[in-house]
Design goal:
Keywords: Membrane, Transmembrane, Transmembrane helix. There is one protein chain. The chain has 56 residues and is mainly alpha-helical. It contains 2 helices and no strands. The two termini are 13 Å apart.
Length: 56
């Protein structure tokens, strides 16, 4: 499996968890925003790399 696709899936899940974590988990809103912010950066990076990936 493409490593960028895996990174995209993992960071996408973390971003979704960051949105819903303050409601369901004992995580502070600030920590959730911090994690979600960094995950967005990785998610966009993985998406661009995935689109430009040639496969060799």
């Amino acid at each position: 499996m493409n490593k960028y696709l895996v990174l995209l899936l993992v960071t996408g899940i973390i971003v979704l968890l960051g949105f819903f974590a303050p409601d369901y988990l004992p995580v502070s809103d600030r920590a959730a925003r911090s994690i979600t912010g960094w995950s967005w950066v990785l998610c966009v990076y993985a998406f661009v790399k995935f689109l430009t990936y040639k496969g060799y």
